Amino acid sequence: MHIDTVEYVRRAIRSVPDWPKPGVVFRDITPVLQDPRTFRVLIDMFVYRYMRQRLDLVAGIDARGFILGAVLAYELNLGFVPVRKKGKLPFKTLAEEYSLEYGNATVEMHTDAVKPGQRVLLIDDLIATGGTMMAAAKLLQRLGANVVEAAAIIDLPELNGSAILKETGMPVFTVCSFTDAEP
Fold first, then answer.
1. Which of 58, 123, 154, 158 is the least crowded, having the fewest Cβ atoms under 10 Å away?
2. Distance between CA atoms of residues 121 and 170, nearest Å
3. Is 138 left (phi over 0), alpha (psi -120 to 50) or beta?
4. What CA–CA distance (Å, rounded) separates 152 from 171?
5. Phosphoribosyltransferase domain: from which residue to which, for each copy (predicted)?
6. How far apart are CA 39 and CA 97, in angstroms?
7. ω into 63 cis (within 30 of 0)
């Protein structure tokens, strides 16, 4: 039986009902990371997509975007830039606040993380409302970087984040998507 690589990765993602609150189905990528074959298939999908693009850096969003971004940067022979939650970086930072469904949050980057004109791939584990991804993209752009694409493993299209990112002109790539109705 042949299963395509997207379905192979998708089937490894665990759905956790009612977490972190009732009514939410959390899409957990840790089973993907724990299985060496599935993790390799996932990373290879990203490597094949970006290996011929002219990129300078990979920026990963705190925290699961660090895992993907660091491995992908290594495989593509690029530098890695962490986009962290507020108060976690030791040097001078630039901050961007964004809205969540339950309040506000802030992400930060070091002020010397990118140089003007650098081409950056932005990556995280999933796109929900798009707030975190948009805030990270704004930080990169404020420092003069060109965000080539926003990438993630999972898209939650019912939360409209990918659509919002695309409306700004941001190219978006996700490996798979889940709807609220799926277990």
1. 158
2. 11
3. alpha
4. 12
5. 53-157
6. 32
7. yes
Domains of the chain: 54-177 (3.40.50.2020)
| pLDDT tens per residue across span 115-145 | 999 999 999 999 999 999 999 999 999 999 9
Active site residue 14: no
How is residue 14 written in tokens?
């665990």
Catalytic residue among 37, 52, 54, 101: 101
Rounded to whole angstroms, the Cα distance separating 12 from 60 reads 22
User: Residue 154 forms beta bridges with which residues?
Assistant: 126, 176
Cβ neighbours for 40, distance < 8 A, ≥ 6 positions apart: none
Q: Alpha-carbon distance 81 to 79, whole Å?
A: 7
64 is catalytic: yes
pLDDT of residue 2: 65
CB 47 within 8 A of CB 74: no
How many whole angstroms separate alpha carbon 51 and alpha carbon 21? 39
Reduced to 3 states (helix: H, G, I; strand: E, B; else coil), residue 144 is: coil
pLDDT in tens, 32-42: 999 999 999 99
- CB contact at 8 A, 85 and 62: yes
